[in-house]
Design brief:
The structure holds three protein chains of three kinds. Chain B is an all-alpha fold. Chain B is built from 19 helices and two strands. In chain B, strands 1-2 form a two-stranded antiparallel ribbon. In chain B, a hairpin with an 8-residue loop joins strand 1 and strand 2. In chain B, helix 2 packs antiparallel against helix 3, helix 3 packs antiparallel against helix 18 and helix 5 runs antiparallel to helix 6. By secondary structure, chain C is mostly helical. The two termini of chain C are about 55 Å apart. The chains are: A mainly alpha, B mainly alpha, C mainly alpha.
């Protein structure tokens, strides 16, 4: 198993974990965490794609590094927004349980 | 003059607008907040229109050197111009509308509103101007973040907060799918510039197919394709009305544009037959949305579902074009016709839906309720608003000779251009049935609002305030103008097609 | 686009804008609305007048102006939609006639319709009418002309039924006819619409046929298409032409579709003047004149199309006679004028038909057109003055009028001048144009038609003098206090009446000028008129005039007979009178044989088919959609997790499809 498959497999596992979290957890914060885990997995895959073999060692392409840096910043912004929305929800609904957020339906 | 000036204007202008609004509030002229934002949007619109008039050819701009791997590039061609003009135009109308609307709705945090609005438009314009995938992604996220904030703008309302959260989660999932697709493409090609990608993709094998699927999924979430659409009926009504107009009118179009660009440019339709996938999802989208609209009692939710249906039309048009290019490579004319219909529908829907939302906002403000049953008959007391509302709805319903008819007609005639193909025939048939159903419920809405008799004449009734009425009438006039001068518009779209299809 | 084209487009768009602005102007006040509406018609008139120099400027005619709306070559149908205007002598002259008369009538309306509650609607439809009529005469192809045609039909319907409230108290002023043929205004509007619709259907069928056979609908191209017609379709051409003639018959109220015009008198007199005397009813004549060179061009290859001209001529002649005979006994003032209109249009058709048969005698063409101009002027004057008379006497019946000469002198002189023009007394314009018409029939060798023309002239003189005598001479029979009309009302019709005299005095010049213009325009198709003017026609027409006028003068002016009084002659005269009064029973026939059975059938279908079947289907369909909607919307459960699962499922489906489904070659 070469390095690409290894790390890419890891990122896929992370993504699947994150999807599972979003799909089945009922706590808002856990859902946001799931989102972050997916972000992590995708960033990992970007890094994986940027790996270049150089002699005996591995180097990651600068473009991949740059992309991940920016992507992490964006991920952080999204997380911040999501969590602030979660706090607002707590103020309105008194709970983090997503099953209570069903007023908008049909 | 740098061709990309409007983009920088919007980016810088958002900060300037924030400062200016704070200043105005200190000085006490709080009513003028947002005027700078409107001026900046107007300037951006005029610059784009000027460039379109000059007949710009491809212009490129590279940040950090031409061949550095960290390069970010922007491009300007006819497609970018076409879409950007639509975006800036509707943004300007919504901005002017907001000035009075926010005052009447006693919104809080108004100084941040215009900042977010301008960054939203900047992100949208940046998406159309991006020449490499990561730049597109960055601007995409800029647009998305601004829209999350704007949807959840009314912190004191449970609806906005709930809808905003759901929108955020689902839209971020879409963005992450796109990012994963970008990663795969990066792995195939080693760089993310569109021209390099277009050359490298055919040799990508199954990885390229995975990227294709992820891109369709990712952009489809924002473009409100079924089953990725569930955020839309909650998010659009919960936002303040001018933001609803922008969301329905242009943000979801950004999804369609991104899909259009990346699919047609990177994965040449003659090689990759993604047309069938698009057709399937387009049909599913429009049928689902059209059926659900009928029972909606909230006017904004009604219009939101119909936005989903209209995106279905656009996706179907794109799908028909791709399918024809793949299966019948010689019938380029029919494919061009379908794409013309889809592009024209982007324009028509932006105008018509934006107009409908703004008018609905006028009615809601007057009545204090979003329920259609309580809004019945209010149209008679607000004739100018209702006349524009009628024009917008008729445009969406596809009543000839308005331009809405032409966009749907082009897609249908492209589908019928190859009568022997069963898939196209079925697609066209379903398209026509959906259009008929849509025309039915639009006219039903118009009839209820404009023609039903109300019990008592409301003493507070009267026309909408001038600053809210002006963009409404301007958009209605634009609908009529485009109907009359449809020939130059089609010429422009022909140039756009040249970019897309080569 | 040069200045001529801009003028052409502007002159019909301006009244259209005026019509659309009328509700807005009404917000500003009544005077703003009234004068604003008239202003737009004034602008249209100025613009058409400015087009006149085009005829003498040496520009090559016809001048075509095209505006493209949609061009998409790859669309299988509707790929090319264009509109075009054509400026040639016929269209420019017609446009001028329309706009000048329209403006004067709009001016009259300010006074005549003053105080009426529905005036916004009135001005809207009047301006809309002017726009459509100008579009009709300026259009360069059959389809665009059809648009204007339908537009004027709509305005006619709306304006005839203007007093749609059908008030019974206003029976004397607003209704038309006497029992058993008394009709309220709304009914008259519908009747006009239906009858002309029938003609329009035939015309549309004809246009479609021509479009398919000749592959074009543009007038200019149709004329050239005559040489290249393939053999098999040649027998179909006359049929298509006759179908198109159906539309002209309907719109111009010729036999057998003439019954709507007398009942259209239920509308305001200004409407009667504008639509039913001066302009809309001439649309049929315009159509025939438009087709005239086309049919002549086709006749070189397909001689059978000349049957078109036979049909036109005979229909015109018969209509002229029958209608004039009905005017002789009419008991209502406006009905006399209505029958007279039908009769005079018959003259115009007669002239066009005769012109076509005489191997392209320009005489018939010019005669018809000149008579059209004259008739527009003097008939409009007559109708406007009639409106004033009815207003003064409070009733539309001739038996309630009389002796108005003392109280309304200006109206008297205007009506007298116009009536003399109608009769064809030299030197009034009517004499010259009628002369040309009769000469054309002689040149074509159609002596029977000539005789009918002379007989009609006798009747025309009779009823004109009868009308003048009943209204202005004798003792006043009206109960109301009669007085002269206000200035804004009598100025227009005095102008029109004087115009008919002026045209008459300038007639030889005008005739010569018209012939020059048209001879040059139609060079190659027609020979110019014979240079041997015969004296037979003027003598015959003056004799006819005397034969008709003198008895009428003796009876109604000197003898002061009432309108219903008959000469002693026993039952035969009485029976003849009743026949003419009941319009040869043609109207009754239409009602009995066509209208009532259709209504009965419609009611049957409504009860038996529409309500159970179609309503049931509609209700079932909408209920079904609502059920489906209710079911499907449950998918939006409100729980975010469900939505996310939806996304994941959709993504998996797409990924699986694309990876496995052979999306790549």
């Amino acid at each position: 198993m070469n390095i690409y498959e290894l790390y890419f497999g890891a990122s896929i596992i992370l993504i699947v974990l994150g999807l599972y979290a979003i799909a089945s957890k009922r706590n808002l914060v856990r859902i946001v965490l799931g989102l972050e885990i997916i972000t992590l997995g995708v960033n990992l895959s970007i890094i994986t794609m940027g790996v270049r073999v150089l002699g005996g060692s591995y180097k990651v392409d600068a473009l991949a590094q740059g992309m991940v840096a920016i992507s992490m910043a964006i991920g952080a912004a999204v997380a911040a927004l999501a969590l602030s929305m979660a706090i607002n929800i707590y103020r309105h609904y008194g709970t983090f349980d997503i099953r209570k957020l069903r007023r908008l339906r049909w | 003059m740098n061709p990309f000036t409007p983009l920088f204007l919007l980016l810088g202008g958002s900060l300037a607008s924030l400062l200016a609004d704070q200043l105005l509030e200190r000085v006490g002229a709080a009513r003028w907040r947002g005027c700078l934002a409107a001026c900046i949007l107007a300037a951006a619109l005029m610059l784009f229109t000027w460039e379109a008039y000059l007949g710009v050819s491809v212009a490129e701009f590279r940040l950090i050197g031409p061949e550095s791997p960290l390069t970010a590039s922007l491009k300007l061609d006819y497609l970018s111009l076409y879409i950007s003009i639509i975006f800036c135009g509707l943004g300007l109308a919504a901005c002017i509308y907001s000035i009075k609307y926010l005052e009447l709705e006693s919104e809080t945090g108004v100084d941040r509103y215009y900042l977010l609005l301008l960054t939203l438009i900047a992100g949208l314009v940046g998406v159309t101007l991006a020449d490499d995938f990561f730049t597109l992604y960055v601007f995409w996220e800029l647009m998305a973040l601004s829209s999350y904030s704007l949807v959840a703008f009314r912190k004191w309302s449970w609806e906005a907060v709930e809808a905003g959260f759901k929108y955020l989660v689902m839209s971020t999932m879409g963005s992450l799918a796109v990012l994963l697709g970008i990663a795969v493409l990066y792995g195939i090609a080693g760089s993310l510039r569109f021209d390099i990608l277009a050359q490298s993709i055919p040799s990508g094998g199954p990885a390229a197919l995975l990227a294709l699927a992820l891109i369709i999924v990712g952009f489809g979430v924002t473009a409100a394709a079924v089953p990725f659409h569930s955020w839309l009926p909650d998010a659009h009504p919960a936002a303040p009305t001018p933001i609803s107009a922008i969301l329905s009118g242009i943000v979801i179009k950004a999804g369609a544009y991104a899909m259009l660009w990346s699919l047609f440019k990177l994965f040449t339709p003659t090689v990759y037959g993604f047309g069938v996938v698009l057709i399937a999802f387009g049909i599913l989208t429009m049928s689902f949305a059209n059926i659900v609209v009928v029972m909606q009692g909230d006017i904004k939710r009604f219009l939101a579902y119909s936005s989903i249906a209209n995106m279905g039309y656009i996706i179907t048009g794109m799908g028909i074009a791709a399918y024809i290019l793949r299966s019948y490579p010689s019938m380029v004319g029919a494919a061009a016709l379908a794409l013309t219909g889809a592009l024209l529908h982007i324009l028509n829907h932006a105008l018509g839906k934006g107009l409908s939302f703004l008018c609905a906002g006028c009615y809601i403000l007057r009545q204090g309720s979003r329920e259609i049953s309580e809004l019945e008959g209010i149209g008679a007391e607000m004739p100018a608003t209702t006349a524009s509302f009628g024009i917008g709805l008729l445009n969406l319903a596809g009543v000839p000779p308005l331009s809405g008819f032409w966009s749907k007609f082009f897609i249908v005639s492209a589908g019928l251009g190859i009568p022997s193909d069963g898939l196209l025939l079925t697609t066209t048939l379903i398209f026509i049935l959906n259009s008929v159903l849509a025309a039915g419920y639009y006219l039903w809405l118009l009839q209820r609002i404009a023609f039903k008799r109300r019990g008592e004449a409301d003493p507070a009734a009267g026309e909408a305030p001038a600053l809210m009425l002006a963009p409404v009438i301007a958009l209605a006039a634009a609908c009529i103008l485009i109907t009359i001068t449809i020939s130059p518009v089609l010429e422009f779209i022909r140039a756009v097609l040249g970019v897309l299809l080569g | 686009m040069n200045a001529w084209e801009i003028l052409a487009w502007a002159c019909w768009i301006t009244p259209l804008i005026g019509a659309l602005l009328t509700p807005l102007l009404a917000r500003l006040g009544q005077r703003a609305r009234d004068y604003g509406a008239v202003l737009f018609s004034l602008l249209a008139m100025i613009m058409t007048l400015l087009l006149l120099p085009l005829l003498f400027s040496g520009v090559e005619l016809p001048l075509l102006s095209r505006f493209t709306w949609v061009i998409l070559p790859s669309a299988p149908i509707l790929g090319r939609i264009e509109a075009g205007l054509m400026l040639d002598p016929l269209s420019v002259i017609m446009a001028n006639v329309v706009s000048i008369v329209s403006f004067l009538i709009m001016l009259y309306s300010i006074g005549y319709m003053h105080g009426d509650p529905g005036l916004t609607r009135y001005w809207f439809f009047m301006n809309f009418f002017i726009a459509n009529m100008l579009l009709l005469v300026l259009a360069d192809n059959l389809i665009l002309m059809l648009v204007g045609w339908e537009g004027v039909g709509l305005c006619s319907y709306a304006l005839i039924g203007y007093w749609y409230q059908d008030s019974r108290e206003g029976w004397l002023r607003y209704w038309v006819g006497e029992p058993p043929e008394a009709y309220p205004p709304s009914h008259c509007g519908m009747k006009a619409f239906m009858v002309t619709r029938f003609g329009d259907l035939l015309m549309i069928a004809g246009i479609l046929m021509i479009a398919v056979l000749a592959k074009t609908v543009s007038f200019h191209e149709l004329q050239a298409a005559g040489e290249s017609m393939p053999e098999p379709i040649k027998p179909l051409l006359p049929i298509a032409l006759i179908l198109i003639l159906g539309g002209a018959i309907g719109k111009s109220a010729q036999l057998p579709l003439m019954e709507w015009l007398p009942d259209a008198m239920a509308g305001p007199s200004s409407v009667s003047a504008l639509i039913h005397a001066a302009t809309m009813v001439k649309a049929g004549v315009y159509l025939v004149a438009r087709m005239f060179p086309i049919v002549l061009a086709w006749s070189f290859a397909t001689p059978s199309v000349l049957g078109f001209f036979y049909a036109v001529m005979w229909i015109g002649a018969l209509t002229a006679f029958i209608s004039a005979s009905q005017a002789v006994v009419s008991t209502e003032l406006k009905k006399v004028l209505a029958y007279s209109t039908v009769s005079q249009i018959g003259y115009m058709m007669m002239a066009l038909g005769a012109g076509g048969l005489a191997a392209g005698m320009i005489q018939g063409y010019v005669g018809s057109l000149f008579h059209l101009m004259n008739h527009a002027v003097f008939k409009a004057a007559l109708f406007l003055a009639a409106g004033s008379v009815i207003h003064a006497c409070g009733s539309r019946f001739l038996r309630d009028m009389g002796g108005l000469r003392r109280y309304a002198p200006i109206t008297f002189w205007s009506m007298l001048l116009a009536a003399l023009a109608l009769m064809g007394l030299p030197p009034f314009g009517g004499f010259w144009s009628k002369d040309l018409v009769l000469a054309a029939t002689l040149s074509a060798g159609e002596y029977a038609v000539f005789a009918i023309g002379i007989a009609t002239a006798i009747l025309t003189a009779f009823y004109s003098v009868r009308m003048i005598g009943l209204v202005f001479y004798g003792s006043p029979r009206s109960g109301a206090e009669a007085r002269e009309a206000p200035k804004i009302m009598w100025i227009p019709y005095l102008i029109l009446a004087s115009l008919s005299l002026v045209i008459g005095l300038a007639a030889p010049l005008l005739e010569h000028g018209l012939e020059e213009v048209f001879a040059e325009h139609f060079s190659g198709l027609m020979t110019t008129r014979e240079t041997a003017p015969t004296l037979l026609t003027p003598i015959a027409s003056i004799t006819a005039l005397a034969a008709g006028a003198i008895p009428a003068y003796l009876l109604y002016v000197r003898g002061a007979w009432g309108p219903g009084r008959m000469a002693p002659g026993g039952g035969l005269i009485e029976g003849l009178r009743r026949l003419l009064l009941r319009r040869y029973y043609i109207n009754a026939f239409y009602y009995r044989a066509l209208a009532e059975p259709s209504l009965r059938l419609a009611r049957l279908l409504l009860r038996g088919f529409e309500h159970p079947v179609i309503e049931g289907f509609n209700l079932a369909l909408s209920a079904g959609v609502r059920r489906a909607s209710d079911l499907v919307r449950r998918l939006h459960s409100g729980l975010l997790n469900h939505y996310v699962i939806g996304i994941i499922l959709g993504a998996l489906i797409i990924i699986a499809w694309i990876l496995l489904g052979g999306v790549q070659p």
